[in-house]
Design goal:
Blueprint (H helix, E strand, L loop, with lengths): L1 H14 L7 H7 L9 E2 L5 E3 L26 H9 L5 H9 L1 H7 L16 H10 L2 H8 L4
Antiparallel strand pairs: 1-2
Helix pairs in contact: 2-6, 4-5, 4-6
Length: 145
Amino acid sequence: MKTLTLLAAGAFMAAAPAFAGDIEAGEKAFKKCKACHMIVSDAGEEIYKGGKTGPNLYGVIGRVAGSYDGYKYGKGLSAAQEEGFVWTEAELAEYVQDPKAYNEKHDWPKQSKMSFKLKKGGEDVAAWLASVGPAVEADAEAPTE
């Protein structure tokens, strides 16, 4: 019986998402990012006012890295774009901790225009960015049965 219970618990844990950030904490932590980044929807709605030094982060989760139109990326994310690399919450959380090391880990050129390192809270910021992105809006607009 113990074995069955342990197997059931293990299966449950394996089915649970391995990555989970705190959306509310992410919104607070994003204040460190707003000096360079804004979040403006495709329709022009300003979700979070911020700087324009970095690219608009609206829809970054699920977007090909280095592909925001009108922004000139460093060599690292340009290489990521060429490979068709797509941002996930987990990947973005790791990237913001140390962009140059992240690029190097993926065998992309180390050069990054992002010099800031978010040592803690990257998973929370990524979760919050996912929560304000177009996929969430599309879900909210979908008709219910």
